[in-house]
Amino acid sequence: MENVLKNWWYMAGWANEITRTPMRRILLNQPVVIFRLQDGGVAALEDRCAHRNFPLSMGCLIGDRLRCGYHGLTYDAAGRAVYAPGQPQPPRNGDVRAFPLIEKHGVVWIWMGKAELANAALLPPLGWLDQEEWRTYQGGYLHLKARHSLLTENLLDGSHVGYLHVSTIGGEDAEGHSNAVTEITPFEFGLRRRRQMPATKAPFSYRRACPSLNDVVDRWNYSEMRPGFYQNYTGAKNVGTGALEGDEVGGFQSRSMQAIVPETDHTTHYFFGGASPKSNFRPEKVEDALAAVLTTLDEDRVALEAIEANEAFVGDRPTVNLANDKSAMQWRFAIKQMLSAEKNELARSA
For residue 107, what pLDDT is reported? Predict the structure, then answer.
């Protein structure tokens, strides 16, 4: 898979997805089997038995050992073949690859590159998922029949919100989104973006969650994009109450996280979750909150899948860029630099 960082943490799944039943997931064109150990830890191996490439996810756990469901070759959590029926020792070349994992804030992360380069410091900061005064929702997932780069640039594009999401978060003010005051700042692992929309129409979903909002509000949006991961802090207050000067107390507030994990060259795992102050949280059930967010994200899914499908017919005909594509253009430059740095690092360590 080209144009994808390999030496990087990607979301493998929600922590509550990983159980004692082996789970198969394709990540970066690689089949992976993920399972939970008896002590509560997690393990991930390439999803194939070295004997006949039978998926290990179709096998079963015997203690912390994964037994192939085809001929019984058995592996430990480090991918070592430890037992082979009918012979005194397992084959010396029967091992499979194991992947480093970290479980934190309800998310299981997997390192898809060289295991010795795995660096926990590269994980995105998600401490807000554990804030006592905020209510979180986790477990969101969409399977996207479109390539990961389309989703990444969609999340960086604030101007489409006023058109594609009119009935949800758009707020019936397309020009307000297109004319938002925007600052983009590169950092070591990607881009940070700050957007402000003064005196703009409040979305119905905001007013429903926060009845004290007027029809016209000042909105803000602070976001960060890293390879495979986007997080966003957004909110609104009544006009002139300090939102644009940094006073974010009161009004509507919401944080979200969205993991963009390449499955294949043309499909993507899309995980999402978020949090809002308990005083804003409407409706009360987490399941209902997820359903409300899913309505918005599904609008993106439909659009991106339509683009992916249409490109099979339009071929390599060029597209044009608009003024609001600045974030996407800067992201393309940033990821190109990160890919070059990774290539150089791998050459040094070879």
Answer: 97
Tell me the per-residue pLDDT of 33-55, one tens digit each, with 9 for 90 and over: 999 999 999 999 999 999 999 99
Report CA-CA distances (Å) from 62 to 15, 83, 160, 329: 21, 12, 50, 50
Tens digit of each residue's pLDDT (9 = 90 or more) over 290-345: 677 888 899 999 999 999 999 999 988 999 999 889 999 999 999 999 999 999 98
How far is the C-alpha of 206 from the C-alpha of 223, rounded, in Å? Answer: 18
Question: Rounded distance, CA 133 to CA 131, Å?
Answer: 6
The Cα 56–Cα 145 span in angstroms is 25
User: What is the reported pLDDT for 294?
Assistant: 84
Amino acid (1-letter code) at residue 261: V
The whole-angstrom distance between residue 80's C-alpha and the CA centroid of its chain comes to 30
Q: How far is CA 332 from CA 4, 6, 108, 150, 228, in A?
A: 12, 17, 27, 12, 13
pLDDT at 289: 62
Question: What is each CA distance from 88 to 77, 85, 91, 92, in whole angstroms?
Answer: 21, 8, 10, 12
Report phi then psi at 113, rounded to 5. -95, -150
How many angstroms separate the CA atoms of 268 and 265, rounded? 8
The partner residues of 33 in beta bridges, in order of sequence, read 24, 45
Q: State the pLDDT at residue 263.
A: 98
Go through the domains of the chain in sequence order and give each one's CATH number.
9-118 (2.102.10.10), 127-340 (3.90.380.10)
**Identity at 346, one-letter amino acid code:** L
Both tokens of 248, joined, read 């974010």
Is residue 295 within 8 Å of residue 302, measured between CB atoms? no
| Reported confidence tier of residue 171, pLDDT bands at 50, 70, 90 | low
